[in-house]
Amino acid sequence: MKNRKPPAPKNSRYAAVTRRTMLKRSVGTGLFLSLPGLACSASNDAEVFAGDSAASVPSTSTATPSEASVVSEAPEPTQPVATEPEPLSSAGGFSAGDEMVVNFTYTQGAGGKSLNPYIAVWIEDTDGQLVRTIELWFEQSQKGPRWLPDLRRWYSIDQSRIGAGGIDQTDLISGATRLPGAYSLVWDGLDDQGTFVGDRDLVLCIESHRERGPYSLICEPLSVSGDSLTQSLADDGELSSASLELRA
């Protein structure tokens, strides 16, 4: 039969050490074991808690953020300063995209042959030099041009232009005669060289003549200043209701 080790006495040093060890473990885990035989006296177990009385307690202090971690507030947006709009340019004359509409009415009166009239509409400068022929209507036949001198003013300044070295543009700019009625013609503000006339002083002329019939002429200076112009022209003979409008 094997020899059994006798149990340790209740008050032996081993039992005390064991009990204290368990007490330490229960304190470390936050549990206090209230079990028989584990209660300790103040005289024997005071040293058990001597080393644990300064056990660390979780800190509840709040760390102050460093200067680098502080987010600066965004600056308030700068409001735009209201400024007065610049005045629009009021320079007169033609520019790219402008056009002038010329309106007139031809009414056949008494006398002469009942034929469609010869009509010329053109722009000249204040020196009487031809700037641009807008329309020229005459009979498109071999005998037709012989009556062109009856358009006295236009024919005179056109011949002066040709005599100064210009080319004869009659075939390029002319068209057939028209019946009596109201007409609207458009001028793009270009002279014979394809240059914008700008703010030059100009004169608008409308001339008509019927074979062996009345002769009519309207010539009035253009007052082109600003972005638009509407101007009525005086009647003369068989030409009436003449007006012009500058469209910018």
Fold and architecture overview:
There is one protein chain. Helices cover 17% and strands 25% of the residues. It folds into 2 domains: 10-51; 99-247. The chain has a 5-stranded mixed sheet with strand order 4-3-2-6-7. Strands 5-1-9-8 form a 4-stranded antiparallel sheet, with no helix packed on it. The protein is globular. 17% of the residues are buried. The chain has 248 residues and is of the alpha+beta class. The protein has helices spanning 13-28, 42-50, 152-163, 170-173; strands spanning 99-106, 118-125, 130-137, 174-175, 181-187, 202-209, 215-222, 229-232, 239-247. The model is unreliable at 12-18, 26-43, 51-61, 65-71 and 80-91 (pLDDT under 50). The chain has 4 helices and 9 strands, in the order H-H-E-E-E-H-H-E-E-E-E-E-E.
Topology order in helix (H) and strand (E) letters: HHEEEHHEEEEEE
Query: What is the total number of structural domains?
Result: 2
Classify the secondary structure makeup into a structural class: alpha+beta
Q: How many DSSP E strands?
A: 9
Shape: globular
* Largest beta sheet: strand ordering: 4-3-2-6-7
Radius of gyration: 57 Å
Low-confidence segments: 12-18, 26-43, 51-61, 65-71, 80-91
Please, what is the average pLDDT? 74
Q: Which range best describes the helical content: under 10%, 10-25%, 25-40%, 40-55%, 55-70% or over 70%? A: 10-25%
In percent terms, what proportion of residues is strand? 25-35%
* Number of helices, where a helix is a run of at least 4 consecutive DSSP H or I residues: 4
End-to-end span in angstroms?
A: 133 Å
Biggest beta-sheet profile: 5 strands, mixed
